[in-house]
Amino acid sequence: MSQRFMLDTNVVSHIMQGRDDGLLSKLSRLPVGQAVLSSVTLAELEYGLHRKGQPDRLKNALDQILLRMDVLPWDQDVAKCYGAFCVTLEAKGINLSDFDMMIAAHAVAVNATLVSRDKAFAQVPKQSLKLAIW
To answer: Rounded to an integer, what distance in angstroms lies between the CA atom of residue 5 and that of residue 70?
Structure first.
């Protein structure tokens, strides 16, 4: 299977806002199925939409994204990876938010490159997490 890219919440938010032509161009060049979302990312996005009263433009943008990308479930294998991943990072003095840890562990578990603009991920050792800043 070709390399998969798991998009972090902040990247999907940029896509939904439609203000980043470079990001949209990069995504449009990826074959179908190569860009995916974690179910944790979807949960964060849905929370954000509900907090904002579900504005039609953003809800429609998310619906369009979901037509083009698979949402991967946070399952038992990911949960096991999460436990080991968190302990490894904590031993190195690295603490991310709970959702960031869950999304990063999900990317590790499914052998995907995490695409994010969150500087917190830069502190995670490259051998622990494949990271791309788009």
So the answer is: 11
